[in-house]
Amino acid sequence: SGDYYNQGEIRKKELEQSCFLLGIPASDVTVIDHRDLPDNPAAEWDTQLLATFVLKHIEANNINLVVTFDAGGVSGHANHISLYAALRYKYWCLEILILFLCLGCHVLVLESVNLFRKYISILDVPISCLLPRDALFILTEEETEQAKRAMRCHRSQLLWFRHIYLLFSRYMVVNSLRLL
């Protein structure tokens, strides 16, 4: 629930505001508040438990595409990396693999890039176009502004380095992904 600084309720509301700006109704957002899945940049979450929550959400909402972090978690955040591990878990567990195949659900993982590429914004487009990937999303100026507005809804998390992220991150403009 984003309660690392005891701001869980604030962050839930910020998430709903952000999703609303992106056209995602609050009814499609699931916030998990579980003692074994603490919001903590150093905590590795239980893969099987997290995979169970993710799978329930996929089934309940008839989701056919999941976009998540890769093994680097984009920022190295342990919780982000745990999400990747939980989705990879489906390949290790035959029961979950069969269910994913029956649901027709695919998983794309967002490519983590080095610090230089991460902060060259639109200048990363030619590099991303040349490198192998399964999907490449290049946002229009309007989409980038919408993404920035959505990010600004997370006021409790807008520390100085996230303002730099909003200005210079390639992830605000270009995202390269691979199928899991």
From TrEMBL:
Gene Ontology cellular component list: endoplasmic reticulum; membrane
TM helices/strands, residue ranges: 89-110
GO biological process: GPI anchor biosynthetic process
Keyword Acetylation part of the UniProt annotation: no
UniProtKB keywords: Membrane, Transmembrane, Transmembrane helix
Record keyword Secreted present: no
Any one Pfam family match given in the protein's UniProt record, by short name: PIG-L
GO MF annotation, one: N-acetylglucosaminylphosphatidylinositol deacetylase activity
Alphabetized SUPFAM superfamilies for the sequence: LmbE-like (SSF102588)
InterPro entries: GlcNAc_PI_deacetylase-related, LmbE-like_dom_sf
EC number: 3.5.1.89
Stated family: Belongs to the PIGL family.
Descriptive protein name: N-acetylglucosaminylphosphatidylinositol deacetylase
Species of origin: Antrostomus carolinensis
